[in-house]
Write a structure and sequence with these properties.
By secondary structure, this protein is mostly beta strands. The chain is built from 2 helices and 9 strands.
């Protein structure tokens, strides 16, 4: 009985601790998210601001559509599509679907889809880094 009491107390303590809140309300993620940091697989390959290879942003609308815009070497490329959100155990995810192929789609699969998620720091992060793409982090 003593061990059962200790076990219940142990689980109660850990369940009562709160985790950082992650933006999951639609008002939290709708709007403009601007690229603030790029990183590669090499150590110390992180760049920010004007030192990044390109500048870009996502604009999420309340009707389930989005626009992605990238400026690289003075050339601006913009594409729009639709998105859905899901709240997984790992976090809050976006699945972006594009109507046609574009060089600015950051995907592991090449299937006109992109996946992003909101981090514990309330930044938006691309899953492209999971398959040797750059690590991209956005801030609202």
């Amino acid at each position: 009985m003593k061990y059962l009491t200790i076990l219940v107390a142990f689980f109660s303590i850990f369940n009562s601790c709160s985790k950082d809140t992650v933006a999951t309300d639609s008002a939290d993620y709708q709007g403009k998210w601007t690229l603030i940091k790029m990183s590669g697989s090499m150590v110390d390959s992180e760049t920010t601001g004007s030192a990044m290879e390109w500048q870009e942003f996502y604009l999420f609308n309340s009707n389930g559509t989005f626009t992605k815009s990238r400026e690289r070497n003075g050339i601006k490329t913009t594409i729009s599509g639709t998105y859905t959100t899901t709240n997984h155990i790992e976090g809050f995810y976006f699945e972006l679907t594009y109507p046609n192929d574009s060089e600015i789609i950051g995907s592991c699969y090449g299937n006109q889809k992109e996946e992003l998620y909101i981090t514990e720091n309330n930044t938006l992060s691309s899953t492209w880094k999971n398959c040797d793409g750059p690590g991209l982090e956005y801030k609202k």
